[in-house]
C-alpha cells in the first residue's frame, strides 16, 4: 500500500468481478476508501473481503445501475461524508452474438439501459458531488468495440461508442470546475466470461493478440489508478501556480520558442525543456466560446422544434 490516494473516497460500479474488482483492489491499495456497487451481493462481499484481507477499507452497496433511484442511492452512500473523489462506472452488458438482421429488441433495450442510461445516471449524481467540492475524476469503462466494428455485436459497439461520446461531452461541461472525465477502452480482457470458454476457443483468442495473450483485469486497473492519481497531481500544480500570485498568465515554452515567439495578451513567457500545460487568458476565451456555441444550439433547437430543449 502506497497511500497515494489516502483519505479519498472512491466508488466502483460493477465492482463484483473482473475489471471492477481489480480496480477496487488497486484503489484500496493506494489508500482509497472504496465503495463497490452492483446487483449481486455475494460477489460484492467477496471484493470487500479481498480488500480488507490486504488491510484496505471497503464496503458494498447492492444497486441495479439501470434504476436511477438505486444509482442515486449508491452514489450517496459512497459520498456520505460530503465528497466523492473518484468514480469508476464499470457496469456493462455485452449481450450475445447476433447478426444485425436477427438482432433481439430485448437484448438491445437491456444494453441501452445499462451501457447508456446507467452511465448517464451515474455521472449525473457523481458530478453533483464533485461540482460542489470543486474536484474529482470519473472514469467510464468503455470498450475497444466502441472504436472499431465487431461483427455480431452491433448493439454493443453502438452503446460503447455512445459511452465515449458522452464522456467527451460531459468532460467539456465540467473541465473548468476542476473535474476530469475519461474513458478507458480495453480490448478483450480475461474476465469470468472469457474463462468460461473451452481451451481451444481461449487459445485462438490468445493467438489473435500480438502479445500472444489477452489483457488481465489488473492491467486495465492500472490505467484507472493512473487517471485517479493524475487528478491529484494536476490539482497540486494549480495550487502551486496560485501560490506564486502571478498577476499575468504564464505560457511555458522551450528556450528556443521563447527566443522567437511573440508575447501576446500580456502573457509572461518562461523557458522550460519539457512540455507543460499552458496557462493563459486564451483558456477562458475558449470556455466562453463553448458556452456561446451551446447557447446558439439551444436557440436553434427552440426555433426548429418550437419547445424549450
Radius of gyration: 22 Å
State the shape: globular
CATH topology of the largest domain: Rossmann fold
Instruction: List the secondary-structure elements in sequence, H or E.
Output: EHEHEHEHEHEHHHEHEH
Average of pLDDT: 80
Tally of separate helices: 10
Strand order of the largest sheet: 3-2-1-4-5-6
CATH architecture of the largest domain: 3-Layer(aba) Sandwich
CATH class descriptor name of the largest domain: Alpha Beta
Work out the number of β strands: 8
Question: What is the number of domains?
Answer: 2
Percentage of residues in DSSP E strands: 5-15%
CATH superfamily of the largest domain: NAD(P)-binding Rossmann-like Domain
Given as residue ranges, the uncertain stretches (5+ residues, pLDDT < 50) are: 231-283
Distance, first to last CA: 48 Å
How does the helix and strand content classify structurally? Answer: alpha/beta
Oligomeric state of the chains? Answer: single chain
- Give the biggest beta sheet: 6 strands, parallel
Q: Helical residue percent? A: 40-55%
Question: How would you describe the overall organization of this protein?
Answer:
- This protein is of the alpha/beta class and 309 residues long.
- It folds into two domains: 9-237, 3-Layer(aba) Sandwich (Rossmann fold); 246-305, no CATH class.
- The chain is built from ten helices and eight strands.
- The strands form two sheets. Strands 3-2-1-4-5-6 form a six-stranded parallel beta sheet, sandwiched between helices.
- α1 runs parallel beside α2 (41-53).
Task: Explain the layout of strands and helices.
Blueprint (H helix, E strand, L loop, with lengths): L8 E5 L4 H12 L3 E6 L2 H13 L3 E6 L5 H11 L7 E4 L15 H29 L2 E6 L12 H21 L4 E6 L7 H4 L3 H9 L9 H27 L6 E4 L1 H6 L7 E4 L9 H25 L4
Parallel strand pairs: 1-2, 1-4, 2-3, 4-5, 5-6, 7-8
Amino acid at each position: 500500500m502506497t497511500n497515494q490516494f489516502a483519505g479519498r473516497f472512491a466508488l466502483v460500479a460493477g465492482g463484483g468481478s473482473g475489471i471492477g474488482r481489480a480496480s477496487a483492489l488497486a484503489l484500496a491499495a493506494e489508500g482509497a476508501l472504496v465503495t463497490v456497487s452492483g446487483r449481486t451481493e455475494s460477489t460484492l462481499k467477496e471484493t470487500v473481503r479481498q480488500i480488507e484481507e490486504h488491510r484496505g477499507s471497503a464496503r458494498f452497496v447492492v444497486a441495479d445501475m439501470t434504476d436511477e433511484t438505486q444509482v442515486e442511492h449508491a452514489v450517496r452512500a459512497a459520498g456520505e461524508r460530503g465528497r466523492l473523489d473518484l468514480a469508476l462506472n464499470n457496469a456493462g452488458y455485452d449481450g450475445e452474438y447476433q447478426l444485425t438482421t436477427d438482432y433481439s429488441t430485448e437484448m438491445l433495450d437491456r444494453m441501452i439501459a445499462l451501457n447508456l442510461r446507467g452511465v448517464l445516471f451515474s455521472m449525473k449524481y457523481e458530478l453533483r458531488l464533485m461540482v460542489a467540492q470543486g474536484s474529482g475524476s470519473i472514469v467510464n469503462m468503455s470498450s475497444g468495440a466502441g472504436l472499431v466494428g465487431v461483427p455480431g455485436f452491433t448493439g454493443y459497439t453502438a452503446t460503447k461508442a455512445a459511452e465515449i461520446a458522452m464522456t467527451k461531452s460531459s468532460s467539456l461541461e465540467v473541465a473548468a470546475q476542476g473535474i476530469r472525465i475519461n474513458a478507458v477502452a480495453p480490448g478483450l480482457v480475461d474476465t469470468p466470461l472469457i474463462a468460461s470458454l473451452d481451451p481451444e476457443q481461449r487459445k485462438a483468442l490468445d493467438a489473435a493478440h500480438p502479445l500472444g495473450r489477452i489483457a488481465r483485469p489488473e492491467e486495465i486497473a492500472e490505467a484507472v489508478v493512473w487517471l485517479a492519481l493524475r487528478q491529484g497531481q494536476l490539482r497540486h500544480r494549480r495550487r502551486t501556480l496560485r501560490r506564486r500570485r502571478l498577476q499575468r498568465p504564464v505560457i511555458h515554452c522551450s528556450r528556443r520558442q521563447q527566443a522567437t515567439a511573440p508575447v501576446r495578451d500580456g502573457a509572461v513567457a518562461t523557458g522550460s525543456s519539457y512540455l507543460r500545460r499552458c496557462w493563459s487568458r486564451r483558456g477562458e476565451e475558449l470556455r466562453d466560446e463553448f458556452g456561446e456555441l451551446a447557447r446558439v444550439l439551444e436557440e436553434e433547437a427552440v426555433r426548429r422544434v418550437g419547445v424549450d430543449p
